[in-house]
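#lab-general

N.A. 3:47 PM
ok so I finally got the sequence cleaned up, no stray characters, all 321 residues accounted for. can someone with queue access submit it? mine expired

B.Y. 3:52 PM
send it over

N.A. 3:53 PM
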Amino acid sequence: MNTREKRWGHHEDKRDWREYNETLVKRGEMYLSLGFLESWVKDLDTMNAGKVGALYQYPDPFITFLGFTHIMLGIDYRGLEGFTHGLTRLVPLAVPDYSTICRRVNALKLMITETLLDHEGEDMVISLDSSGVKVSNRGEWMRKKWKVRRGWVKVHIAVDEGKKQCVAIMVTDEAVGDQNMFSPVVKEADRNICAKDGRVVQVNADGIHDTRDNFDTLDGMGITPGIKIRENASTRSRGCPLRRRHVCEYRELGYEEWRDKYRYGYRWRVEGNFSAVKRLTGEHVSATKKTSMYKEVAMKFLFYNSIIKYDTTGELPWMKT
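B.Y. 4:20 PM
back already:
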C-alpha cells in the first residue's frame, strides 16, 4: 500500500475524464459569451422606462459580463476599459470609462436564485462552513517585518451536496463567530432552495455549530441535524430535546456509524467549493472599501455557481445564449 492509500484509503476513480475534459474546454467559451449584444436595446428600454434623471447607457447584462471578467480573469477596472476597447474591433460596442464600470459593477444586484439549477421537488442535504479571504495581497514578510495586519473578510456558505452549488452566501467581518451565522445561513438556503422547487431535509456542520439555539432552529424548520457533537456534550435536554436525542444517538452509535448514517463525510463538498473558488479567483480581494470587499467576495461564489450552471445547461444566468 502506498503512502496516499495508507492515509486516505482506497479510492476508485469513476470519473469520465473525456467528458470532464470537454467540460473544462467548454468553460473557456464563457469568457467571450457576448449574448448581451442581442438584447442590448431591449434591456436598456426596460431599465430606462420611467427613470428620472440621466438614462442608462449600458445594460446590466453587459456590466455583469465585465464584472465576471474582473473577478474570474483578475483584470482591474482600468484594464477593463481597455479590454472593452479591444472588443470594439470585433463587435460594435459602447465603451464605458473605468469609473463607470467600477460604480456599476458594485451596484449590481445579482440574485443567487438565478445562478442555481432547478431542484424539481428534490430533498436537499446541505453543508455549512466558513473561510477567510485576505483583504490585501501583501506578502508574509511585510506583515512580519512591519507588524501590518490587514485582517480578513469571512464568507459563510451553504453548499448543496448533490449539485455542489452555493445555496446561501453571507459575508461578514472576521470577528463574527461561525455559530452565530448558522441560523441566518440555513434560513437563507431554505428560501433559495424552495424558490427552485426543492426543500432542505438535512444540514451538516462541524462541532462549532453544536449549540442549543442551532438545534432549535432546525427543529422549528423540521430539518434533520447532521451536526458533529462535542466530546463533552451533556445528555440533559435544557430546553432542546432535539439536541438531547442527537447526543444520545451519537454516543450509542459512535462516530463512524453516526458519520455513515448521516453521510457526514460528504461535508467535504463545501470545502471543495472554497478550494475551487480560491483557485479560480484568488485568495484576496482587490477592493479597498469594506462594502465593496463584501460585494466582491459574494460575486466570486455567485460566478462560480454560474460556471456550474453553464456546465449543466449551457446557459449563463445573466445573458441570452
